[in-house]
Design a protein that fits this description.
Belongs to the ERCC1/RAD10/SWI10 family. GO terms for molecular function: damaged DNA binding; endonuclease activity; single-stranded DNA binding. It is found in: Nucleus. Keywords: DNA damage, DNA repair, DNA-binding, Endonuclease, Hydrolase, Nuclease, Nucleus. The protein is α/β, with parallel strands linked by helices. The protein has two domains: about 15-130, 3-Layer(aba) Sandwich (Rossmann fold); about 140-200. Helices cover about 35% and strands about 15% of the residues. The protein has a six-stranded mixed sheet with strand order 2-1-3-4-5-6, sandwiched between helices. Helix 5 (about 140-150) packs across helix 6 (about 160-165). It is elongated and about 60 Å long. It starts with 14 loop residues before the first strand and ends in an 8-residue tail after the last helix.
């Protein structure tokens, strides 16, 4: 679920309960936009508004112990909303996404501790909004999801996206090639190539 879907409403943030087992998690160093405190006995990692569970999972850890997250999900107390916040800390992560589709929870991907903290803060701020904002909006097919992602780049349509993906196994390979070859392998207009380059070089801020 893209962070942009979670727009801050006009609501005072509540306090997030954090499992004591999360002591030492670097995400907490960035969780400064909401109040939080440790609590013993939580079956989840982060409890928001008493009815939202957020389990935090390092993809690298999951690759070595895939049984861990299954046990955690099975031992959760009943929550209205279950979220799996996955920290992508390894390459070729797409192949693992199929595994998470089978879980009865919303899956969020983050690529840094600061982004994970932003998700937690945004979930807290949006806790009482309609669940439509976090419902699945993409195809379960990985190829289709890549097409949908690339088609979000300004001036790039799905036909362009399919041409860009031809012969590529993952998005990282595609973007590495684009950076080195300036997309010469694909017949795109100059404006579309410039749009891709601008998208790849855009700067991200730490603002919510």
């Amino acid at each position: 679920v893209p962070l942009s879907y979670l727009k801050p409403p006009f609501r005072i943030p509540m306090t997030i309960k954090v499992s004591t087992k999360q002591r030492g998690n670097n995400v907490l160093d960035h969780l400064n936009q909401v109040k939080w405190y440790y609590e013993d006995g939580l079956t989840t990692d982060f409890e928001i508004e008493h009815f939202i569970s957020v389990l935090f999972l390092s993809l690298r850890f999951h690759s070595s112990k895939p049984e861990y997250i299954i046990a955690r999900l099975n031992n959760l107390k009943e929550y209205k909303t279950n979220i799996l916040l996955i920290y992508v800390d390894m390459h070729n992560y797409e192949e693992y996404m199929v595994e998470f589709v089978q879980f009865e929870c919303q899956v969020f991907l983050c690529f840094g501790n600061d982004e994970a903290a932003k998700y937690l803060a945004a979930i807290d701020m949006n806790a009482h909004r309609s669940t439509e904002i976090i419902k699945h909006r993409y195809s379960f097919d990985l190829y289709e999801r890549k097409i949908e992602f690339l088609a979000k780049i300004p001036k790039i349509n799905k036909k362009d996206a399919a041409a860009l993906l031809a012969g590529k196994t993952c998005l990282r390979t595609l973007f590495d090639d684009l950076m080195s070859k300036a997309s010469n392998d694909v017949r795109l207009s100059t404006k579309k190539k410039e749009s891709i380059e601008e998208y790849m070089n855009m700067k991200f801020t730490n603002d919510m």
